[in-house]
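SEQUENCE-TO-STRUCTURE ENTRY
===========================

Subject: a protein chain together with a token-level encoding of how that chain folds.

Sequence line: the amino acid chain in single-letter code, read from start to end.

Question of interest: how does this chain fold, as expressed in backbone structure tokens?
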Amino acid sequence: METRVHPPVAAALRLCLHGLMLGLLALTAVKAFSDGGARPGAVTAVAGVLAAVYAAGAAAGAVRPGTRAGAEWLAVLGGLWAALLVLSPDALWVAFPLYFLQLHLLPTRWGLPAVAVTAGAAIAGFLLHGRAVTPGTFIGPLLGAAVAVATVLGYEALFRESERRRELIEELVATRAELAGAERAAGTLAERERLAREIHDTLAQGLSSIQLLLRAAERVLPEDAPAAAHVHRAREAAQDNLAEARRFVRALTPPDLENGSLTAALERLSVRSTTPALTVRFAVSGTPVELPTPYEVALLRAAQSALANTVRHAGAGRAEITLSFMETSVSLDVVDDGRGFAQDAPAAGATESGGFGLPAMRARARSLGGTLSVESAPGQGTAVALTLPLDRTGREAA
């Protein structure tokens, strides 16, 4: 059975409905005596029973919209009201609060027929007592039913709209919180990468140069020279500090690189990015060599950014990530079979907020002496390649 859940009706509206029902029942009983009706005692008794049943149902927690208890309570009220309508034509007016109860407690597909039957019964009861037939005899109950239907359905429409807005606001608040958290995390990672790059490019490189110069000085100085011992200790101190600087750089490595190599991080990235709509493959070409941390960070970030563009914008079914180790360089290629784009269009050089991180990737590549190339055309997919220079030992080129 269709179920509709409503918030509690405002106390003032409930009191008005209760007052209307009990007031109309009391009016029916009073008029039975004042008009000199044939059975005023029976009218009063049925009205009293109807009032008691109504009060009991209104106080019962089981009587709620869309429940069997609510439908059964309405059926008892309807039966008692029909009996009262047979005894007194003034019971006609009790139909008005019944309209609201039926529309509130019954599903719409049952509430509307119930209102129509109630209006028809009210008109028939009035005619049964031989009262003069006037346009108001028909218009009154029908107009009351129309007002009740319009009021309740209008309220429900407003309630649904209010619920949609509440859910939208909650979603926006949650999204803002997630965005703020993501921005904080991104800012933290960016600062860690910047510090790692600065330490590597300045302190570590400087200590490495000092160590090489002191090693050269050791070779040219006689072993018994007074300065040889000082040079040796200075070289050892530089070596120890260089190792400490490298430990700092490793400590500032992005989380994806903390527990494994770059190849392992790229493999995890491809697995995480694979969905029913997109298959991501990862491959390694050449013999892997140890890379400086800034290189690993740059290659990982390029893969993440390029793959994010593929997921969000390309509509691709397949993407391939290839990490290639060559004699004088290392390169990362991300190729997809998506819709592509015209490279002279604004999208090709858009910022991250516009859906592409190409300027950021190019800047990162330039900072390490590398290059970034992008090949794409509408309907022909996209290929992004980041290449960084290496010397023959696999270390960063000078």
